[in-house]
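Suppose a colleague, Dr. K., hands you the sequence of a protein chain of 532 amino acids and asks what its three-dimensional shape might be. Before reaching for any lab equipment, you can write down a predicted structure in token form. Begin with the sequence itself:
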Amino acid sequence: MDSGVEKQAHGLASTDIDAALERVLASKHFARAERLRRFLRYVVDRSIAGEADRLNGYSIGLDVFDRPDDFDPNLDTIVRVEARRLRQSLRAYYAEEGIDDPIVISLPTGGYSPAFNTRINPPDTNKSQAVLSARGPVIAVLPFDDYSLGDTDDFFAAGLTEQLIAMLTRFSDLMVISRTTSFQYRGVEVSKIRDELGADFVFEGSIRRSPTELRTTAQFIDALTDTHLWAATFDRQLTADSFFDVQDEIAEAIAARIADRYGPVGRANKPSDGSRTSSMGAFAALMKFYDYYASHSEHAHAEARTALNKAIEQDPKYADIWAALSAVHLDEYRFGFNQLSGLESPLDRAQACGLRAVALNPASAMAHQFLACTHFHAGDANAFSIAAEEALRLNPGHADLLADLGTCYGLFGDAEKGLALINKAISLNPIHPGWYHHYPALSLFVAGDLDGALAEATRGHMEGFFWSHALKTAIYAKLGRDDDAAAERETLLQIYPKFGASYAAEAAKWQAPMSFVTSLGEGLRAAEIDVG
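The predicted structure, expressed as tokens, is then:
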């Protein structure tokens, strides 16, 4: 290798990653934690050396924790336990000493390969916390545990948590941490949640289902003192109404306990007749939709659509089912998921379902959100603005809603409002989905800030999502990093072989301004993709 060429890893100079590692290891969170120091240095060094694919529980057990050759990570859980501690310590470091670090090292769940992300403008945490505090108390709702006997559906407990979060975000003076962030803190000590998320309160609960009965337990905890402010057990018959009733009681109890300290927290929007169902099947279908929307996998999309269509037959007046169907049909259009033939266009179906949802429940932010998105993809700026503003009025604290509509505003030409909504979503949801970064990355690319665009695209990369790979292909090509561009191009064309011929049509679905289409097209051509 030419000594004058800086070695690169994950799009960053290896010397920069080394410097970032040394800052972490010298911090108070790691200075006396030798086991964590060895663990972090090992996975970072192996990743820089191009051996990230060899990082597994067995190799780490032998090389870091001195286990013998017959070590079985399925029986000896030291690697999993220490990986969890390492993730927690890294989050704590970057929330305090490392708040201004330009490179963030993390260990994503599900594996042991580290991620390296850059900060364009490191956040002013003190200022952010002051803003949050000024807006009201911060609540982290942890996922419900499901202690039901026999086979259980994880999506059911997760969906209940999602609904409770959505209910609490309707209280105008509460700041509720979003699902994708709070779900990462299952089983974590309350003090950690307080320190890393700035939570004033933590909610945790569980459900236990039998064929005929439902037991729900709930606890509301003061994060500062780690004391229980309220706890309750609800025993009900297993019906859809039971779930709604319990959620209502929990939300009202939380609001009342917070009011004891902060004063009244405002009122949630009063539900309409279409906001709930008596059909257990329809309620379960909505839980399955929440599971899909958290993952956006094509397989889960097909399952959710089947369940939602069946639910419409069971309760055609349940507004949330119509709103969920609007989102599912919309993803058939914009992502090409599980396309159906012989029917009206998926965009038309999505819009019809959105209109039906709003008619059944005008107070549903979810209904207005997905209706707004159908108007956006149809290119109707006025109708989009009306529905989007109503969704924001009804639920100004739901992170995914803010990021979704922020992206639409940005692509419709209102970059200032779009980026403001996305930044607010990120503050509510620190561990957010990658798609939050797609519009910021694209806007930086069009503005000519290629390094900034790459940093955002890397932070928001979604493996297997063709637009993620297309954007990085164009950025790398414009930066002159031909090998990286070729690798991304190969992946893109494996996922979507006819992307070049379809580029203009795909861009048109997102109402992209001509400047965006032209700039991205030039980058793709530089990577030898014929986009016409």
